[in-house]
Fold this sequence. Notes:
Chain A is α+β, with helices and mostly antiparallel strands.
Amino acid sequence: MGKRKIKVLSAISLGIILSISCSKLLPQLPTDDSILDGPVDGLSPEQNRIFLRGDFAFNDEVFTSSNGLGPTFVATSCGSCHAGDGKGHPFTTLTRFGQSDTLGNQFLHLGGPQLQSRALPGYKPEVLPAGATFSRFTPPANTGLGLLEAVPDATLIALSDVNDADGDGISGRPNWITLPSYTIIKTGAIHNNGKYIGRFGKKALVYDLLQQTANAYNQDMGINSSYESISTYNNLQVDPEIPNQTILDVVFYLQTLKAPVQRDQQDREVLAGKQLFIQISCSKCHIPQLQTGPSPIAAISNKTIFPYTDLLLHDMGPALDDGYTEGTALTPEWRTPALWGLGLSKNSQGGQVFLMHDGRARSITEAINLHGGEANNSRKLFQQLTESDKNKLIKFLESL
Amino acid sequence: MMKICLSILFIFTSFIVQGQIDPELLRNFSIDTTERKLNMDAVYNRPFIQAGKLPVALGGYVEANYQYLNENGISKGHEFQMRRLTLFVSSTVSKRIKFLTELEFEEGTKEINIEFASVDFEFEPLLNFRGGIVMNPIGAFNQNHDGPKWDFVDRPLAATQMLPATWSNVGFGIFGKKSKHNWTYGYELYLTNGFNESIVSNSMNKTFLPASKSDPDRFGQSVNGMPLFTAKFALRNTKLGEVGISYMSGIYNQFEKDGLVLDKKRAVTAYAIDFNTTIAKTGTFINGEWAWIKIDVPDTYTEQFGRNQTGGFIDIVQPIIRKPLFGFTNSVLNAALRLEYVDWNKGKFVSTGENISDHIYSVVPSLSWRPSTQTVFRLNYRYNWQTDLLGNPPSRMAGFQFGFSTYL
């Protein structure tokens, strides 16, 4: 073999070796605090397998006419509404309608409570019935939901202050809801005349992640299951279009998604912003720290979490009163949304933010300024802060 | 399908056995497949082997590779892939009647397709009839896709993930070609079966024309009885290169059944322009294609499925060493670069009035070594930036691919 051939062979071999070993040419794993998806620490290999099945069903399974989509629907997959497990975009913001008081939804026979605003080709989507009050709901982030589910009812009762006994103007209360028949009532659950505490959804109408999941398949995608078997298209009972196992895998996936990791925790301005957050009483509803109770999933059992919510209903004032409600909530009442992951919202909302229940706030500052009712005092205090202090508070919120 | 496979394998094996008895009987029509003819000539611009005076000739090519890809910091590890094995059989039925078929096995036997199986009748050079399974001449890659002709492991994204290459259907049409001085022009006009509703109802969650290829009935029936029309005109100058303009349009949905109306007729239309040239001074070969697709999607259906798509690629291949190597007298080492872009959903959100994303950019530098004109070894580095519908931070995928492709 000639010298030239050896050189060429060596150069090619070296090129291949260098190429393969050069990790800088390959994308790096994003830091844990820069993304919302991923499991909680401590899952067993068996649980990892279930998580992966749920991850596939949630993010990769697409519904079409051939596997049950619609005929009327809002989205074609779970992931369409929750990119990267984060908050949704106006593209998939859904419309709920038909209930204006605590007496129940008067438009169930006309397609309530949710508008299936899209339809398969050849079908017509639903239209909002005349006279129906409505509200638009932006899909929330999924992260940490299992941890929120594991917070004991007793904690929520302890945080509630229905009659504002402490006189601080804040009177959080649970939404007492009637459970669907398939619900497995949690150990330690507290009931009130046969009703239980709802903790998910904008109006806290949902008891647990099984109800949330089965309901979303049904209402958002038109996928019937043995849990939710009434078709949104014709209000008739139909065969399941998805196995129970898939629903349960998705529930497990949602239960074991990690909590968002706060960034810049030791930054001086972030720390100062957190103090301001507490000083102006934002933290009275957006409770910084909660403790989960016992859970069948060890990885989320008895954990200290930092969700910035009390999972209770609060009167948010007339500006946020759409005239629509669910369960026993009043129309101006909204469940306190968790603030963890707020700073990463733009990564799932197309580089922008669409905040509050319907995405009307295009910045954190605007969202704060929309707070009224029980949050009126905190909003005023925020508005009285210096620009520097406002920036610190915003920086803190963006770190979550 | 199994019968066809077995028959072709039997014929192929028969010739190999004959060859073992007397190799002199085999005539090898080795041609320079890197020679630049019109893209429409590609189906016959291949090396064939023929036994004795039999009117049947055989050919084929194989592609295999190794790859190590990483998406957002997570890799599937080392992968070895047998991308495809393609067998050709051509036959000269008479002086002006020819038959050619192309059978492709992708990823082992995961996909077995008859990509081409047509009879050509030549009335005169400008008027030929072609019938059978024909390749719809949309763009250039769909016509001219043999692995050994390309310096990259992957096929172009715009050709395979937006346009449905390789896209062939049952139908017939006419084609012709004429040369004068340095100029050659050709045309093709076909009516074939077409797309189906899976292009806007598929597991890709996007308007995806290649989804139609998974319909097992498409070579036996049309979903709606409406033909897909495909037309192409190409012009080549021996010094300047070739430009092709192509058009494809048809109804994709089942708008009625048993006389009952199910929907309005919904059309899919594609336009493409392709070009290739070799810069004489440097030997640089440039090959590109760009396509636009318009799909009639109901306003009441989700915006997840795009109404307009666009995308294309450009390959630049620069020979850097033309010297005999390892006894291969025609050895050429090339440096190459592919730039690609596909936008699967060109439009604006109704809710915000802002642009819908759902696009990908890709850069693929390559080193390719051609020991002969019919064989290529390729070392590629690929970097993709893919943005979802909403325009969130892109998913990044990069990695290395090494493989070969050779005519048989």
